[in-house]
Write the structure tokens for this entry.
Amino acid sequence: MLFSDKIKQLRLESGKLQKDLAKAIGVDVPAYSRFEHGERRPKRDQVLRLARIFKTDPDELVAAWLADEAYSHIAQDKMATQAAAMLHEMLGGHSTGNQQAPATEPAQPAATPVPMATRNLIKRLGRSLMPHYEQGDAATVMQRIEDESIDCIVTTPPYWRRRTQGTESITATSKEDFVNELLQTMAQAWRVLKPQGSLWLNMGDDTTDGFVQGIPWRVVLQMIDNQGWQLVNEVVWNKTTTSPQGSQDHLRKVHEFMFHLVKSDDFYYNDEALRRTFALIMRHEGKDRGKPAKGKQHQGLVPSDVWTIGVQRSGIAHYCVAPDTLYRLPLVATCPRDGIVLDPYCGTGTACKIAYEMNLRSIGIDINAEYIRQARATTEAKPLSLF
């Protein structure tokens, strides 16, 4: 087990939060998170402090830390397996009284997953603006994305129990399992997102036996408490129209949440571009009936946290496309020029299509082959310019 995996396991077993451990050893939450992802290694005294907090053998934890540091220098080399075997012979034999180890033990380090060796999706993406689509499970495919390489993630995960066609990325039958599956993807989102990046998570809720289940908040609160995310805004998406609902004991549901989450307080945010785009959208939809304050004509007012955006239908049965505006506003506000956009539940590719229009690179992931096919079909290559 890698040192990074070891301290993560110990943290989960102890019930500690990343922010508590970060404070205890004198680092910020993003720095501690990088320890758990194997991107950086703590100092020896910090390892000893962690051992005391976890109430584990300090010698064992320091040994894991030393082994991880040594192996990191050879992991990418084609001779790693032979070097690991020699290292085992040079060190392991002395510590066990020259006792012979099992034949398979010297090769164990090479069998240990080395994430950095397989994380090359951004490198493969190159500088092409054409959206790159990957079919597969979101959390699994995201393991191939390099650490801290994504500028903005905007996505709408499958709704719990709303789609039963067997073609969705999350098929959990209980809300607890649904939340846990989604949290695995959000943990990968934390790893791949740059420190200045933003995650926009659009989620609808479910009503069971007449009672709201609070699925979006179950997910987001665990992201905040256990993964280190900070919540900037919870946007209410007023969908204006919904399917007919015949209940006589509760209100008609016409909204979903769009959560804006970040890793640190130093996140990228283009306020002027957001105001300008929001004002243009409202004017186009005939909702800008007021006049902006003097001196604000060029940029409009600060957008509110209630967005009135109509739903968008598609030709796929039981499927609604995310409205362009719902994704365009987050990308305008929080994705810098030359940035990279990721949608781990891309469906038919709305986020990637908008990214392409904005000259941003993008990656879309979905388990449904038909969605991926339609996503590719919606984006045509821009004509080459001779000037």
